[in-house]
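Problem 12. The chain below contains 715 residues. Write out its predicted structure in token notation.
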Amino acid sequence: EMSLSSTGSPDTTSRRRRPAEHAQGERHDSPVKRYLQPFLGYFLIVGPSHHACEDSWEESQNKKTIRAENEVEANKLVNNYRFGFRKWKSHVTERPFEGRSDVVKELYSELNVIKPHSGHFITCGNLAYVLLFGWWVSLAYFLVGTLMFITVTGVPYGSMIVKDIFLVVFLQMGNTLRRCCERAPDCECSMEAEEDNSPFLLPSPTEVPVPEMPDRPLRTPYWRRFATYVWLLLGYPPLVVVHSLACFISWILVFTIPVFKMNARTLGVILLLPPEDVSISHQGYETRALLCCYHAANWYYYKYTIDGINVFAANLLPLVIVALVTGYIDRENKYASSDVKFTIAIGSIIPLSYYIGMGIASISAQSNFAVGAVVNATFGSITELTFYITALLRGHQKANTCLEEVVKAALTGTLLGCILFIPGICMIIGGLRHSEQRFNSRSAGVSCALLFISIGGVFAPTLFSKAYGNLVCDSCTNSSGANSTSNSSGPFVCHNCHYDLVGIISQEDTLPLVYTVCALLPVAYIIGLLFTLKTHSHIYNIHVGEVQVSGHHGTVVHWSRWRSLVILILATVLTSACADLATEHIQPILSQPNISQYFIGVTVLAMVPEIPEIVNGIQFALQNNISLSLEVGSCIAVQVCMLQIPILVLFNAFYDVGFVLIFSDQHLWASIFSVILVNYIFMDGKCDYFQGTALVVVYLILLAQYYFAPSPAGC
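Solution.
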């Protein structure tokens, strides 16, 4: 039995007769297999004969055929389908630029090449540019130009600024100018105004570079002019500030990176040229384009990467420095309040979590299966564990039991978010684009089974306490106002009631059960790894064949193994520092009278570190790979129960921080109900936006319960 899929049609001219020495071993292969085997870059799925009768038609439809540019990327893609491995969407190697789409090529193109353009210049992005940048940049140019005129010697620079730049923003309407320059104060082109049938003005599917400038008449060298030093001392510095500010704002906004490129090139190249070398549409010697831009915004810049790092993650990285500086230097909250410090610290965990995920994916893709499994098990939960242990330590030092309840709420919130929200939002977005999506129901069934085992093990001590514990209340009063110590009769109203292990058994008697559960859960996790990765790996229907190696210099990885390891260690240390600051300044957040501490734990503390995983899941769903989207949430939820909670219990055994593996009723029933619901959704191997909406609505209902719930004991 064989299933085949590819992204392109094979070249029929590349067929050739096989050598005779191999013909005997391939005599029984099908003609399709013999036809396609010589081709590189295609993955064939050949199932053994003894599985032919067991595989159903639906399973054969779910077989995955993947294609990668090189062996490292192929390893990363296969790791995505492995249980226990972190799912990662971004590439870990450099992609061949020639094979990228025109949209992506446009993101990395320079602005000194004249490109054909068709369409309107009045767009939403250009109008936003005028409102956000154009008016105050042009005002700065006008003031600097006026200053240059006052100095007399700087008149050439003043003329360049006012006439050739400032007027472009509002007044210039020439056809040749519209071909080469967007209406912006920093967008000038040094090119000859040629006829409309010139090569670089004609519509063409490719970019046409302009020939070099011819020889010019002799003139005074640039650095021997007095006007040059007047410009560099009086005119250039203010524009450095203006363009630097414009660069910063446009880079942070991401979608306006073309404005960043324009300002950077203007500041670094154009403003340092002699005035006579810069013109817009004048006849002369100039035939070389200095700057050419049509649009100030491009909505596809969310795909922009820097050394393999997404631009959003790169922009959020300075938050780490801000969090450390404000947190450890401003101890007395003179410049920033505790609320601000907490927000910055918790936000800085987002890029650190992204860098940790990139490091894990890079090492796993460049290593064998054993190393990848160890790295994923070691660093896969490091972000959450760092925060939980830091919070427990700080709560123990301050004798604040509220932080323990917040940690339990964060653990439960991670479970609920990964079981309900991540699959739900991926189903909605993927369903809106692809109507109905199919996934491997058998592999999803394995994940659901592990979820049942996880939830049953984690909440076993809680059920044990409810079966053999006593209901204890802080205060009880009857209708007449008498307290519980009086002899009055009638119905009592009790507050802050909870099950406590007193009377029948003590809390120490539950420790053997807790330790037994925490020993069995990792064992179940290891068995799940062996089942899905070794003995029954065929249920994922992912097999690796030959890959196509692009280029002549081999594969170029963004991060080597040693670099990835160093970044992992550094990101872990920074995560610990940011988690320490977040727990130090969390108390004002917990003291809000209108918000339950449960709600803060199950939302902010639970889901903020998982934002990179949510983005990965959504990207998989948009590519019609809903199987990986569902595995993203299931993998995290299983790791929370089978790895993170046992590690917390083990840590508490060596250093008692008061962590007791007994959850509140709301945590218990919310988790159990969520697992049952998601198991029902995953039964048929199909999903759409309606099923995703059901999961998200249930998640929001549970969040509403936590929002209106009373504060836990000790808070």
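Discussion. Confidence is low (pLDDT under 50) at residues 1-62, 167-211, 281-287, 549-553. Students who got a different answer should revisit the alignment rule from Section 12.3.
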